[in-house]
Design goal:
The complex is a heterodimer of chains A (about 100) and B (about 280).
Chain A: H1 11-19, H2 26-37, H3 43-55, E1 59-61, E2 71-73, H4 75-101
Helix pairs in contact in A: 1-2
Chain B: H1 10-26, H2 31-55, H3 60-89, H4 92-99, H5 103-124, H6 132-158, H7 171-196, H8 199-217, H9 223-235, H10 252-277
Helix pairs in contact in B: 3-5, 3-10, 4-5, 5-6, 5-7, 6-7, 7-8, 8-10
The chains are: A mainly alpha (about 100), B mainly alpha (about 280).
Chain lengths: ~100, ~280
């Protein structure tokens, strides 16, 4: 039987999850995301998502090394992550119920 | 800043360039990583263009000029590119090389004029500051080329055949010189596109124009190679009456870059049409 493919989560969600454990620069985020999810986010996708998250005010850079600038979650980013986790948990619970009933 | 980072728009590089460079240094450059970076650069360019349109909406006059430029440029490029490719692929140039005023001659002049109009309108539509001077220089060189083409056409109509009995330089030679100038103009436009980020169109146009120029100036191949090329040409159905040995015959050395040149302009025309239909509606 052919293995089923699932869509990986959005890089933005993975970045928020990574930064929820503390501030990190780009490369540290890539290693952390691969460690907790097994997903390799490429540099282009990572910085595309970082740009969007920073523009939306969900993460912010911290002053320091210009080449390895760390980022952290903002309050708004923490709220957004919490909201997404609740939505995913609800979906997961519903999925389990429906699969059990079928 | 690394070459890959330079693919991103300037505003993006100013903000993230150093960080991105450092990340690329820490990451092994595999094919998937390269593809991801290229996709990221394309996304960043689209985002930057949309943001620029939002912050600096074009004036009504500029919108009209752009719309007209896109419309005329699209039709000219697509139809002239098709004419150009057809002219070389059907082999009718072999005939006008000998007799002066047959269909191939008219088609080629029409194609060259169409390409010039396309080049001119696309330069009007050109907004990237980095490539502007090159694009304008390309149009000037092409304009001189078109003038030479026109003079050659008049001369061809005025003199009796065979030309070589009266002139050291036949009208055909003058016409080819005009064509060479047009190709140089196209090469300059291709450079402008490359500098301005239109990488695929610039690379294709540049490669085709340079290949055609090289074919024009390189010496003829030795007889055994010519015979082989003749056979390929016949096999592909491109010949009507064999090689003339002139600058533009239909041997594969010529018609392959010529076809690429024509097809490139057709693709550029189709791209312009897509931009025309995707353009934002002018504000009232």
């Amino acid at each position: 039987m052919k293995p089923l493919r699932t869509h990986p989560p959005e890089p933005a969600l993975l970045i928020l999850l990574s930064l929820a454990a503390g501030q990190k620069h780009g490369h540290a985020m890539m290693l952390d995301i691969e460690a907790f999810s097994g997903i390799r986010v490429g540099p282009g996708s990572l910085y595309g998502a970082i740009e969007r998250l920073e523009r939306d005010g969900l993460i912010e850079p911290i002053d320091g090394d210009e080449r390895r600038r760390p980022y952290r979650l903002t309050e708004q980013g923490r709220d957004s992550l919490a909201g997404q986790v609740v939505a995913l948990t609800t979906l997961a619970r519903l999925g389990r119920q429906r699969l059990a009933g079928s | 800043m690394s070459g890959l980072t330079r693919l991103y728009p300037k505003t993006w590089r100013d903000r993230y360039g150093h960080e991105f460079d450092a990340l690329l240094e820490d990451t092994s450059l595999t094919l998937p990583v390269l593809a991801d970076v290229l996709m990221g650069a394309a996304r960043a360019r689209v985002t930057a263009s949309v943001a620029a349109l939002r912050t600096h909406p074009p004036s009504a006059a500029s919108m009209v000029a752009t719309t007209t430029g896109l419309r005329v440029g699209a039709v000219s490029a697509a139809s002239a590119g098709m004419l150009w490719a057809l002219t070389f692929l059907t082999g009718s140039l072999v005939e006008w090389g000998k007799y002066g005023r047959d269909l191939g001659f008219v088609l080629l002049i029409a194609a060259a004029a169409g390409l010039f109009v396309a080049q001119l309108t696309m330069t009007v539509d050109w907004h990237a500051a980095r490539g502007r001077a090159l694009a304008h220089l390309g149009v000037v060189v092409s304009a001189v080329g078109m003038a030479v083409l026109g003079l050659a056409l008049l001369a061809a109509m005025a003199v009796s055949r065979p030309w070589s009995m009266r002139f050291a330089w036949t009208p055909l030679d003058v016409l080819m010189a005009g064509m060479a100038l047009m190709l140089i103009g196209c090469t300059l436009l291709a450079s402008a596109w490359l500098r301005g980020g239109r990488v695929v169109a610039g690379a294709l146009l540049g490669a085709a124009a340079v290949a055609l120029l090289l074919v024009s100036v390189l010496p003829a191949p030795p007889p055994e190679v010519s015979i082989m090329l003749d056979q390929i040409g016949r096999f592909r159905g491109a010949y009507r009456s064999g090689s003339t040995g002139g600058w533009f015959d239909t041997d594969p050395r010529t018609f392959m870059p010529a076809a690429l040149f024509g097809v490139t302009w057709m693709l550029v025309g189709l791209g312009q049409m897509r931009r025309y239909f995707a353009r934002p509606a002018p504000s009232t």
